[in-house]
Structure prediction request, 125 residues.
Amino acid sequence: MNTYKPKNETREQQEASAPRSGRRFNLFGLFDPERYLKAQAVGKNLPFVLYCSALALLYIANAHMVEKRIRSINKLENEIKDLRAEYITLKSELMYLSKQSEVAKRVEVAGLKELRSAPKKIYID
Prediction:
């Protein structure tokens, strides 16, 4: 007759001693809070938590930097539109002022007159 009585093992010890082939995958076991909130588990997962926190900070900083750059680009695009409109206005004004009739009106004040006859060629031998 067998008098050996096994000790009561905890669930973790039973899982550790159980053969892997007979073990079933438990999806809810991944989200078990007892598993992650123990002192050993916290210490073991601390580098990963710090890594995730650093990635989150980098993600937030990158988002702020991109938004700032987009605002700057929009501001420069508006400035380009304004400068282009000013350029077109000044160019049309210049074309109007450089017409022969406008030039003649402006130099008439200085005492210059427009020629009514064709210019004559001077030949030197």
